[in-house]
Write a structure and sequence with these properties.
Low-confidence stretches: none
Number of helices: 6
Radius of gyration: 23 Å
Oligomer: single chain
Distance between the termini: 67 Å
CATH topology of the largest domain: Deoxyribonuclease I, Chain A
CATH architecture of the largest domain: 4-Layer Sandwich
Helix content: 10-25%
CATH superfamily of the largest domain: Endonuclease/exonuclease/phosphatase
Mean pLDDT: 91
């Protein structure tokens, strides 16, 4: 970086876009077949992603975006890829100057579990790309490493999407392998330069406090124990730890970017190396970390993520994850030794904090919509009632799977809590008329009612 140059502020956005697929009808996932996912759906999807991105930096947009869940293109010669369509949507909103770097996941390759690769990580950047490296990892998306030139300073960014199932000890073993892949590369970089500037982001399918929270079932955690993500900001000034997780900048009640079983989750992460806290190269802007939830846009009336829905002629919604955002700047001058000053530096928090409830609306059925009072049955599947609590009265379907017949149609009934699911399955008899409250929504392209609390069953 040239001496005397002005500081260069910039923003990084990390965004899981919930399966951005093209509309060619060739897909690993059933949700994106031609009969339910058309080119019009693609237009809506990329336009909505661009709307969210455009809220960053007053419409200028972030300079670096780490995307997850963009389709591995299975027909590259037929039409533009999903990332190309997204780039065009950003440009249509005046967000220009991006270079697109896509992960090398191949449509012809398979995961170790035998399933074909369906989605990949993609980085959009306005800075010159110096190098790209892909790191294959066990049964997950390739970890995408992009080395950037930020006005003469070298910045490494790593885009991740680890194996799913945060609360599952079995899949945690796979995430441990994912973490080792990343940790090995970080060790090589930090051995050459202990103060290297590194931004690590993505969907890690791990809670920020994965280790403490699941200690009884997971003796070793991928994120905390293997990768080394931790919450003591001042510890970076020593030699024992080299990474800091930005979730710790927020109070516990504000830590959340996704919702599962009525609780906030922190599957999305931005993790920084110690080099972003020194007085050289690129520097983090203290306390700039935030969850990019925009009321009336990607955040619904209850403050929850407005998920993508295939319903309707063109679809609607955004993603099941809120993006994360953090700001950085280059450091001018000679690069003096020492550390940047911190306001309210966070201390390590090793307690197994339980996540806050996503919304009290899960207990409030006073405003539930009575399906019997809806004259137009088409409203149940056009997306307008998605995520709403409804009062359901119907006849229990046949088979072990929980289903209920409403207005001559068979609907799935999902109960996230296993013990409650078994109790309901044992209590409901085939052909019996039952009444309950449920959240109306979709799973893998099929509409269903989700019972979140025992008191919802009448």
């Amino acid at each position: 970086m040239a001496l005397g140059a002005e500081a260069r502020p910039f923003t990084v956005l990390v965004y899981n876009v919930e399966n951005l697929f093209d509309g060619d009808g060739v897909s690993v996932y059933d949700d994106y077949r031609p009969n339910i996912y058309s080119p019009e759906h693609v237009k809506t999807k990329v336009a909505n992603i661009a709307r969210v991105v455009a809220t960053i930096e007053g419409g200028k947009g972030p300079d670096i975006i780490l995307f997850q869940e963009i389709e591995v293109d299975r027909t590259p010669d037929r039409e533009p890829s999903s990332e190309a369509r997204l780039l065009a949507a950003l440009e249509a909103r005046g967000l220009r100057g991006y270079t697109v770097v896509a992960g090398s996941d191949s449509a012809t390759s398979m995961h170790e579990d035998g399933n074909p690769r369906a989605i990949k990580c993609v980085v959009f950047t306005r800075f010159p790309v110096k190098a790209v490296r892909n790191h294959p990892t066990l049964t997950a998306r390739n970890i995408l490493e992009v080395e950037l030139d930020v006005d003469g300073a070298r910045l490494f960014v790593f885009d991740n999407h680890w194996k799913s199932g945060a609360s599952d000890p079995v899949t945690e073993k796979i995430r441990i392998a994912n973490a080792r892949t990343l940790r090995s590369r970080l060790d090589a970089i930090l051995k050459a330069d202990p103060h290297a500037d590194i931004v690590i982001g993505g969907d890690f399918n791990s809670q920020y406090n994965q280790g403490p929270r699941f200690k009884s079932t997971m003796p070793e955690s991928a994120l905390n124990d293997v990768l080394g993500s931790q919450g003591n900001e001042l510890a970076l000034r020593g030699s024992k730890v080299d990474l800091y997780n930005l979730w710790y900048e927020l109070p516990p009640e504000r830590r959340g970017s996704d919702v599962y079983r009525g609780e906030w989750g922190t599957l999305m992460q931005i993790i920084l190396s110690r080099g972003l806290y020194d007085r050289r190269g690129v520097q983090y802007v203290d306390n700039s970390f935030a969850v990019a939830s925009v009321p009336g846009l990607n955040a619904g009336p209850e403050g929850l993520p407005v998920r993508w829905s295939n319903e309707g002629a063109a679809g609607s919604g955004f993603s099941d994850h809120f993006p994360l955002v953090a700001r950085f700047t280059t450091v001018t001058g000679k690069g003096e030794d020492g550390w940047m000053p911190l306001v309210r530096p966070s201390e390590s928090d090793d307690s197994p904090l339980q996540p806050p409830r996503a919304s009290e609306r899960v207990a409030d059925v006073s405003k539930a919509i009575d399906l019997a009072a809806i004259s137009d049955p088409g409203l149940l599947r056009d997306g307008s009632l998605s995520g709403k609590i409804v009062l359901v009265k119907g006849r229990v379907g046949a088979g072990k799977r929980l289903t209920v017949e409403v207005r001559g149609e068979l609907w799935d009934v999902w109960v996230p809590e296993p013990a409650m699911r078994e109790r309901i399955r044992a209590a409901w008899e085939e052909g019996e008329v039952v009444s309950f409250y449920g959240l109306l929504g979709q799973f893998k392209g099929k509409w269903q009612f989700t019972i979140e609390r025992a008191e919802w069953v009448k």
